[in-house]
Amino acid sequence: MRRLHEDISLLETRLATLAHLPEEQTGERLGYHSRILQGGRVGDLWVQVDLGASREFDTVVLVPVVLPRELGGIAGYGFPRRFRVAVAETPDMADEQVLIDSSTDLPNPGRAPLLIHAKDARGQHLRVTATGPTGRVGSDGRINWPSLALAEVMVLHGDRNLAAGRRVTAPTSREAAPVWSLQNLTDGESVLAAPVGAGSKMRKGWHSEAYPEATTPVSITLDLGQVMPLDDVRLFPMRWEGYPHWLGFGFPVRYKVECADDPSFSTSRTVADFTRHDVPNPGMNAVTLPADGFQARMIRITATQQWERFTDHAFALSEVQVYSAGANVARQATVTTTSVYPSTPWANENLVDGDASDNPILPLQQWVQELQESSRMEHELKSLKDQQSLREAKWKRGLLRGGIGLVLLTLAVLSTSLVRNSLRRRRELRSLQQRIARDLHDEVGSNLAGISLLSREASQTASPPLRRQILEEVCRVADETAASMRDLVWMVQPGMPGDLVSGLRLTAGRMLSGMSVQFHPPETALPPRLELEFKRELFLIFKETLQNIARHSGAKSVVISFTREGRLLVVRIKDDGKGLPKAGENPTPGNGLENMRQRARSLRGEVRLISPEDGGCEVQIRVPWPV
């Protein structure tokens, strides 16, 4: 996806620098259309352009027809699947030189021009023949009603179109002016529009004053500075920024172009005369008028019927080019006009600045090559974007499936974990129940057995003092049994009568009765619900410590504190008794201390005993902080 995005960005950046194909044609004249033939006379589908004289040329350009949207918007309409292009000196093509003869079907060019390179080719007559025309396809797959349609045929030599404005012949033509006509094939009007590049310029051109009458003559005069042979004159229409739908803004309805070798035009010659009938607006297509080598210094363009603007009339153009010896000599010309509209950006010098409205004018060869390249890159860009869309959709589907799979896997893992935790907790609960049962058996059971024996002995004793002594012992053992039962109930029912710290406080008060007890709870509260194993083992270690103090230490005061040291819970129980036995002394043997250490290890902790020289003892219970 990243590589696709980079390729798309590079193509878009490159496309922004090239001349591009308009979406649809801006003028009314679509081009040439043959009659629809019957009977399979394919040999009658050809058009021929008379270049006026034998000329050398470099490139032949075939421009396809693009129908307007209201007619279906078909690109490459009527373009032949196979064709033949030849040039000859005579109209009958007896000495023809074949430039291309396609033997297989070619892809439809769509809106893009088709370039046929013909370096050093020469001749006066160029013929394009549809050897494989398009048409209505019958049930047998054959073309039943063949026809030929082309928007424009250009014959390029350097920066000149030798076919512009030249005579066209064909054995058949559908004459439906202005849309279809034989002469539309060389009028310079097609979907390609004017030969302009992609570079954006400030919109400008020339605009006459507005006149109430359309027939007020308005003229543009160019002084080339010296007499020279003229190849052609090119007129570029205007695009007005305020009214973008008005293409060909200000182009005259009737006009004529004259040339002369003196400023007085006393001996002028006519390059083109369109004063007898209205001319269809060319849209944004440049109009090229052949001058056939007239010797002249002055060029005059006169609008005899101006374009209707709102309630008035005006004459406007964006550029005028005059070619001599293959170069635009109008760039150095002096321009005078009948009038100029009194506001920017309209000015006489804008007519020869090299820009058409808001784009730079390109040489014809460069222009058609850029159009062909941009068309190719547009197809490539569309293919890449289609791939990107497909991969994004595939990636999203994969992500959705992967997400669903991940959710299902997570649920399976969680379910397995819950089942395992449930089984583990059940095993731990059974183990705890077994330990509690042992506690009941070892402590409460033995106490009850002792009470039974003492009660039987008291019933058999005749001496009142001895009976009283036995009954007092029965009472003490019963109290200890009741306390043990309370402790067991507290361990298996959290919160009864309080949390762990509260339970330990009550136990200390009961077991160390008669001593001064200072109890300091932790600053950080313990979790409200603790595991039974943690609660049981810590309580039994604590209780064993207090029993040792009560039985052996002879202490008068005890300080109990809870602190958090990193990840540890530290319970300190410090007394002021006689402390641990010194070296050489023989303490009473027992396994209480070892039981305390084993319980601490089961909680991944330890028990430390500290006995200072000045007496007393401190027991530290260090276990991980419960979570």
Topology:
Blueprint: H1 2-15, E1 32-33, E2 46-63, E3 65-66, E4 75-77, E5 82-88, E6 97-101, E7 114-132, E8 134-137, E9 143-147, E10 149-150, E11 152-157, E12 160-161, E13 167-169, E14 206-207, E15 218-229, E16 232-236, E17 238-239, E18 247-249, E19 254-260, E20 269-274, E21 287-290, E22 295-305, E23 307-308, E24 313-314, E25 316-317, E26 319-324, E27 327-328, E28 334-337, E29 355-356, E30 359-360, H2 364-460, H3 464-492, H4 500-511, E31 516-520, H5 532-553, E32 557-565, E33 568-575, H6 592-602, E34 606-610, E35 617-624
Parallel strand pairs: 31-32
Antiparallel strand pairs: 1-10, 2-7, 2-11, 2-13, 3-4, 5-6, 5-7, 8-9, 11-12, 14-25, 15-22, 15-28, 16-21, 16-26, 17-18, 19-20, 19-22, 23-24, 26-27, 29-30, 32-33, 33-35, 34-35
Question: Quick summary of this structure?
Answer:
The protein has 627 residues and is α+β, with helices and mostly antiparallel strands.
Question: What would you say this structure looks like, in words?
Answer:
This protein has 627 residues and is α+β, with helices and mostly antiparallel strands. The strands form 11 sheets. Strands 2, 5, 6, 7, 11, 12 and 13 form a 7-stranded antiparallel beta sheet that branches. It has a 5-stranded antiparallel beta sheet with strand order 20-19-22-15-28, with no helix packed on it. It has a 5-stranded mixed beta sheet with strand order 31-32-33-35-34, with helices on one face. Helix 2 runs antiparallel to helix 3, helix 4 (500-511) packs parallel to helix 5 (532-553) and helix 5 (532-553) runs antiparallel to helix 6. The longest helix is centred in the middle third of the chain and has 97 residues, at 364-460. The protein is rod-shaped. The two termini are 46 Å apart. The model has no long low-confidence stretch (mean pLDDT 87).
